[in-house]
Amino acid sequence: MAILHHDMPLAVFLLAISFFIFNSCTALTLKTCGIDRIYNVGDSLSDTGNFIHEVPNGVRSYFTKLPYGKSLFNKPTGRCSDGLLIIDYITLSAGLPPLPPYKGTGVDFDKGVNFAVGGATALQSRSLSKKGIVNLPTSSSLMVQMNWMMEHLHSTSLDNTQLADKLHKTLFMVGEIGGNDYNFAFNVGKTVDELTPLVHEVVGIIISAARKLIEIGAKRIVIPGDVPLGCFPHYKTLFKSNNSAEYDENRCLKRYNSFSMYHNNVLLDSVAQLQRENTQVIILYGDYYNAYMHLLRIGLERGYNVDQACCGIGGEFNYDENRTCGDSEATVCSDPSRYLSWDGLHLTQRAYQTMAGWLIRDIVPKLNCSETEAKVSNQAWSW
Q1: Which of 176, 81, 58 is closest to 121 using CA atoms?
Q2: What residues are paired with 341 via a beta bridge?
């Protein structure tokens, strides 16, 4: 099966979408911010093709074959979805080409690079191993990705002054990262109470990454928080309860959503403190939690499937952790656009598009972009 990377068909596809969005008279986009390049670190929520180059786990993963990429010319790209991700819509909104994976071949890094790796954790694997969190699919943690980024950035500039000047119109996305630290911990039987102290370690390493960017001259940084874990089929399957009190009005597990909110509150406080210390830099919290809740409300209102994975194997939530999407027995729904979840852990292209629209509407006014800002078209960015 051929793997579609940063090639002409994808670029043309995104340009076609951009024509629709940018010509909406009411669309508010990142294009008003004058961003000339984007750099991203993270995990599978934003990996556009790095994990599939890792040996042995990545190259033999299901992400290298259909049905992944079903909505992108029926070809896999390394994205953990049927199509595009939030980072794709962010780069699109900025008027930039698709963000190429760092480990890709024959790609152009002129407008930015994606260093995110599917399965990546914020903390290093040896640190997690000491806590009994083992069997990680990759060792490409946040600091490994940051090292790649630093090597790349310094290779493109003669000195630190030139680099700082180059970064004046650059947007850095630091995450989402950290979700896998919790996912893998819960998978091996750790409890919410056991993981609460881990949150401060995870947030600490994320803030350290942002500090490194500030040191080299970054002026605009977005640090996304975690999604509501308790709403995902993976969690609703593994931790299913017969006690209705365990669930909220959206049929999400309250305990795990509360944990996500705890992580996000610690991160939000840390981002605010970092901003107070660095008034010359715009540092924003990316509210993935409420972006997802916005998506969930729309799905419920319109009668879409908000509980089951589009691609999976049986059960109440069409999810089996031992036989996931890509397995020979897995089935794929006929219309992924009517589902929130793609494979139980990741979302569909349409879901990511809706979340991206909410996020862009939230962050553009805070990035000190154009003084004249139009209203946002829900038609352009939502179901």
Answers
A1: 176
A2: 309, 347
Distance CA 230, CA 57 (A): 27
Active-site annotation holds for 346: yes
Q: State the residue for tokens 């984007």.
A: 38
10 Å CB burial of residue 382 (0-12, 13-18, 19+) is middle
- Alpha-carbon separation of residue 25 from 35, 96, 377 (angstroms): 21, 20, 8
Task: Please report where in the chains the tokens 């509210």 appear, as a residue.
Answer: 287
Name the residue among 307, 310, 291 with its Cα closest to residue 353.
Answer: 291
Q: Could you check whether the bond before residue 176 is cis, i.e. omega within 30 degrees of 0? A: yes
Of 117, 46, 114, give the one whose Cα is nearest residue 86. Answer: 46
Helix, strand, coil fractions of the chain, as percent rounded to 5:
45, 10, 45
pLDDT tens for 73-101 read: 899 999 999 999 999 999 999 999 999 99
Q: Which of the following is catalytic: 18, 44, 46, 71?
A: 44
Q: 145 near 175, Cβ under 8 Å?
A: no
Task: Choose the catalytic residue: 88, 226, 307, 343.
Answer: 343
Burial (Cβ within 10 Å: 0-12, 13-18, ≥19) of residue 310: buried
294 has catalytic annotation: no
Q: Is 343 labeled as catalytic in the residue annotation?
A: yes
Q: Tell me the pLDDT tens digit for each residue of 138-180.
A: 999 999 999 999 999 999 988 999 999 999 999 999 999 999 9
The answer to whether 225 touches 173, Cβ cutoff 8 Å, is no
The model's pTM = 0.93
Predicted local distance difference test score (pLDDT) of residue 27: 54
As a whole number of angstroms, the distance between CA 258 and CA 241 comes to 16
